[in-house]
Amino acid sequence: MKQVNNPKRSLLYYYGFAMLIIVIFNFIAMPWYSERHVQQINYDSFMTMVDDRQVAEVQLQPSENQIIFTSTEDDTVYKTAMVEDPNLTQRLFDADVAFTGEIIEQASPIASFLSFVFQILLFVAIGQWISRMLLKKAGGSNAMQFNLGKSNARVYVQSTDGLSFKDVAGQDEAKESLTEVVDFLNNPKKYQAVGAKMPSGVLLVGPPGTGKTMLAKAVAGEANVSFFSMSGSEFVEMFAGAGAAKVRDLFKQAKEKAPCIVFIDEIDAIGKKRGQAIGNDEREQTLNQLLTEMDGFEGNNGVMILAASNQPESLDPALLRPGRFDRQVRVELPDLKGREDILKVHASKVQHDDSIDYNKIARMASGASGAELANIVNEAALRAVRQGRNAATQNDFEESIETIMAGEQKKNAILSDKEKWIVSYHEIGHALVAAKQSGSAPVEKITIIPRTSGALGYTMQVSEKGNDYLHSKENLETQLATLAGGRAAEEVAFNSITTGASNDIERMTQLARAMISQYGMSDTFGMVAFEQRNNQYLGNEASATGSAETQAAIDREIVELVGTQYDKAKTILINNRELLDELSHFLYNEETITGQQFMEIVNKYN
Length: 606
Known about the structure:
Layout: H1 7-34, E1 38-40, H2 43-51, E2 55-61, E3 66-71, E4 77-81, H3 88-94, H4 109-138, H5 141-148, E5 154-156, H6 172-186, H7 188-192, E6 201-205, H8 212-222, E7 226-231, H9 242-256, E8 260-265, H10 268-271, H11 281-294, E9 303-309, H12 317-320, E10 327-330, H13 336-347, H14 358-364, H15 370-386, H16 394-406, H17 417-435, E11 443-447, E12 458-461, H18 473-494, H19 502-517, E13 531-534, E14 541-544, H20 548-575, H21 577-590, E15 592-594, H22 595-605
Parallel strand pairs: 1-4, 6-9, 6-10, 7-8, 8-9
Antiparallel strand pairs: 2-3, 3-4, 5-7, 11-12, 11-15, 13-14
Helix pairs in contact: 1-4, 9-11, 13-14, 13-15, 15-16, 17-18, 17-21, 18-19, 18-20, 19-20
C-alpha cells in the first residue's frame, strides 16, 4: 500500500501533543500556583505573633494538620503545622483573635474543572485559527501537501548570471571535460553518429574554494538547455518521505524539459554511505530514490546530473559507480599559471595599475585557492581606497597577501625593547639558515611588525617555481632546519629561549612525523606507512595505524630527526655570528626589510 503523508494531519498531531504537555503542566503547576502566596513559618513564631497581638484571624484545619492565619500588619497569609497545645484556644481568646471565617477561598471542583476545560477550548480555537491562516497562505491543504513534495529547484536560462567558461580560470582540465558535456547537449547528433552516449553524471570533487560551484554556473551560462540547480541539504525534510518526493518531483520536471542538466551542490548531504551504525532513515530513503532516478529501469531520458562535493570518500559506492556518475572531475588547487590567470580574471573587475606583476603575486600566494585569490584582489582594491587612491598597485596586492596570511598590522601592539631584539634575532635566524642551505626558497620579506593573527613577526619565502610537486628527503630536512633557525638564534644570541617558537615547533613535529610515518624516509621503518589520511579535501587529518610500541619508536625517531636539524641550524648561526648580529640590528632599526636588502648584506660576507 502506498503511504501518503498528510501535512495537515501531521500538524494536528503535533498540536495535540503540545496540548497534552500543557494539560500535564497545569496539573503539576496548579497546587504550586494556588499556594504561591502562602508563607510557611514554625509554630514558635506563630505563638510569638499571637502574644504580640499581630494575628488578625485564624482558621484551624485539623484534617489538614495545619493552621492558616493572617497578620494584622499586612495581607500576607501564613500557615504552620498543628501541634498538641491545649491552651491554644485560650491564648487566641486572650489576644482577641477571631477563630472563625475562611481566610482563603477555595473554588469548587466543578468550577475548577469548567475553568480548565475553557482554557483547553481557547487553545484549540487559537490553534485552529492559526492552522487556517497558514493553509490560506499556502493556497489550501492541497497546496501545502504539494509544496512539501516539491523540489524547489531553481531553473536557469542561458547566461542568467553572466558567467561563462572564459570567466573561470585555472581549471583547464575541468573546463575541457565540462565543455564536452555542454557540446554533447547542444550538438548530440555528431556524438550519436559515432555511437557515443551522454554521460549520466559528472561529479566535481576538490577542496573548498576551488571553483566547483562557479564551474556549474559557467555550464548554466554556456548550455542551451534547461539547467536545474539545488543544494543537497534542500532534500532533507522532517516529514517522512518528503525528501524522496522532492527527488521524484525534480526528475519529473527535468524529464519534461530534457535534454537538461541538474546540478546538486554539496551532494554529500544526502549521498553518504548507507548501513552505518548511526543512520538516518529519511536520508537513506532520499538517497535510494536518487539512485533509482539516476539509473533505474526507466533511465534518466536525457537528464545529466552535475554534482559537487568536498567529501568524495564519504559518498555511497552505489552513487559513484559508472551509469550514475560516469566521470569524476578533480577541481584541485591551481598551479602557478592557474593562479596567475585567476588573478588576471578578478583584477579585470577592479581598477589597477598596468604594471602589476601577476607572476610574482601568484608565487607569493602559493597554495591559495580560487576563492582566496579573489579575496586577495578585493583586499587590494579596499586598501587602495583606504589609501586614497583610485587604482590598486603592486604594493596593495602584496600587502593583501600578507593580510590574509598573517592578519592586519597591530598598530596598538608595542613590544618592549628586549622583546623587539628577540623577535629580530628570531626572524633573522629563519632567514639566515634558509640562505645558507642549498635548495631553500629565496627570502622575499622579513618583518617584526606584529599581526592580528598573533605573530610578532614572520619571514616570507617565495619559491621561484611557484609549486613544488615532489620533495626530496634533503629538501624536507632543509625545511626542518629553517624552521628551527628561530629558536636556535635565540639560544645563540641570548643563551635563552622563549615561547615565540611554538608555531615553528608544531610545524616541525608535523613535518618530521610525516617524513617517518607517511613518506617512508626512515632507515628504521623503511617504506611502511603508519598513518592513514582522512578527509583529503577537508583538513586531511591523519590517524595512526600502528601498535603502541611502534608509535613510541616513531616518537623517538621524530625527536632524533628534529634534534639533528636543530643542531644543524645552530651550527650555521654560530659559524655566521657576525652576519647574524648585523642583520638583526638592521631589522631592529628598519622593522621590515626586503629579500633584496637581506641578500645584499649576506653577499658582503660571502
